[in-house]
Amino acid sequence: MKASVVKIEPNGHVCSDCAVRDLAVCSSLDPTELREFEHLGRRVHFSSGETVFSEEDITTSFYNLVEGVMRLYKLLPDGRRQIVGFALPGDFLGMNISGRHNFSADAIGGVTVCQFAKAPFGRFIEDRPHLLRRINELAVRELSHARNHMVLLGRRSADEKVAAFLLGWRERLVSLKGASDTVPLPMSRQDIADYLGLTIETVSRTFTKLERHGVIEIIHGGISLLDPAKVEALAAA
Amino acid sequence: MKASVVKIEPNGHVCSDCAVRDLAVCSSLDPTELREFEHLGRRVHFSSGETVFSEEDITTSFYNLVEGVMRLYKLLPDGRRQIVGFALPGDFLGMNISGRHNFSADAIGGVTVCQFAKAPFGRFIEDRPHLLRRINELAVRELSHARNHMVLLGRRSADEKVAAFLLGWRERLVSLKGASDTVPLPMSRQDIADYLGLTIETVSRTFTKLERHGVIEIIHGGISLLDPAKVEALAAA
DNA sequence: CGTAAAATTGATATTTCTCAATGAGAGTGG
DNA sequence: CCACTCTCATTGAGAAATATCAATTTTACG
Q1: Strand D: which positions are within 7 A of a protein CB?
Q2: Homologous superfamily of domain range B7-142
Q3: Which pTM does this prediction carry?
């Protein structure tokens, strides 16, 4: 990845206008706190493909994804990649024990984050247990996703993986933008493969197979769910 | 006839004597708090194979594993099982968002837990942010484990999975009981297979292969690491 | 001991991967 | 506007890893 040309809006943004105000960690703050919080975060933009942070980097900031999609991944020494999740607006990134990030994060398409320096953010949390509780809530939810994903990776067939992915991704988009049977897929086939523990060829073949069976339609930049019930059946719950 | 096993020790136990005092959530409590905490938890014993809680059960308690080993798993509708982790003394179980457990937990061999009713435990946390912080710490650590395990499930070969499992399991035992190249494996081959996303036959064959290559020795109830460096190489970091 | 459960081993089947070629879409410069 | 090139996606054929099915063998336990 190339060096990042980073745009920082000094103090230009107000939390009360923020698109993720009610989704993100900030939902636990009252208006007064929010005004104080505003001074802690800086909006930063990343272009498609840029790396926001890398695994093993010392954690200097936490991030609140405001707009766009990110891939979160880990690499094996020989380059094999496992995507451990896709981040969407409202997701909070950077929590860890070791003081180092335990995965890397790239922008998929343009991305806007609200970046918090670690130390001031830590001090802000200090006497605000409700914020800590909110962060814990997000961590526990992540943990639940992670466990579901382990089941997918360890025990599902390629067809089931793809079907479950489409449904899960749609579900997340639904809760952000409302229901639709058109599912945008901003990530590449390779990303999907690395998320599902498959090869790009297998993902591609599975998409084609689903389309031949009239279950989905592959459209530009995504798919359309022609028969959601059938996809659910294929996903094996 | 021997007296039947007393399952609940009403108030018999004192936290200050507890084996996991410094490992568990309780490590964040001072002596005064600990005395109060004592009245919240009840020691409960489970025999080998018993289920402590099941996925989708409404969460009525949290659990602190005090002694023994548990398997934590999720089932697909058709019975396929994925073990999402093994719990060891000091592990804290029961955190969730939905109010329901998101995995099931069985005893592997005899197990002793410290059980906390959800409501009083919640109230106790309320004005003790340091305890909440400790719980968050454990959740974030779990999350890191979960992500590492996703890499294993999605991107590692059978040999690498087995090797990584042996090393990871040993590592956990080391931090509980000190270093040793003898690695007890209280779980069955089927458990290992369901943890690694393999079949029991593949696990068995891989063990045999490692033994033939002089890398491990299969002993009663576990294995002995004859060549730890070789195992690490096989695990592909 | 004797029986049941767990683990191992072997032979074969299946799924998914690998390697290789082709096709489609986006951006570039002539 | 049209080649040209680059990347990404699709498709095919064959290979490899792991699963499945079927015996044994070993271990655990009453």
Answers
A1: 8-13, 17-22, 27-28
A2: Jelly Rolls (2.60.120.10)
A3: 0.94
